[in-house]
Amino acid sequence: MASLQQRLYDLVTVIKTETKALRTLVSGTNNGDASDLATTATNLVAAINEVKAIADAAAGVGGPVINDAGTALDQVWSASKIDSELDARLNGLLDGAPAALDTLNELAAAVNDDANYAASVSAALGTKANASEVYTQAALGDPDTNLVAIWNAA
User: What is the end-to-end Cα distance of the chain in Å, rounded?
Assistant: First the structure.
């Protein structure tokens, strides 16, 4: 049976061996084994740099250009420019509508959720008094009636 000292020595040896292999793979010293990397690089750092170079080339040197005035496909707007453009488009769509009518749901509620609102209003207007009809005084009542007095008395 191995002594405690021997077991600690064996543990330190394994840790040192694994650490050295990892350091070799990362740094490329001592011709580390990079055969599992799908790259032409010989170490992990070089492989990461290779991936970065490929990504930079795909997006244009240094990545897309932030240009709030531009519209080219290789340029992008900043987050604040995107926010301001969305706000401007929303405000244009609302065109100063009051808060009670600035959503589609509020507009639908305002017309009683009637999908045929225009036809319903036209039909209702058709039932109202026709301006071409002649109304007699008897039909309309006494024009000398003091309506304010009736109002105040009510």
Answer: 112
Pairwise CA distance, residues 75 & 129, whole Å: 63
Task: Please state, in angstroms and as integers, the Cα–Cα distance from residue 30 to each residue in 25, 27, 95, 153, following that order.
Answer: 9, 9, 70, 108
Inter-residue contact 25 to 33 (CB < 8 Å): yes
Name the residue among 53, 48, 71 with its Cα closest to residue 63.
Answer: 53
Q: For residues 65 and 75, is the Cβ–Cβ distance under 8 A?
A: yes
Residue 66 near residue 77, CB atoms below 8 Å? yes
Tell me the two tokens of residue 84.
């301001």
Global model pTM greater than 0.70 = no
Q: What is the pLDDT of residues 56-73, one digit of tens each?
A: 776 665 556 778 888 777
pLDDT in tens, 78-111: 889 999 999 998 888 888 788 887 787 888 888 8
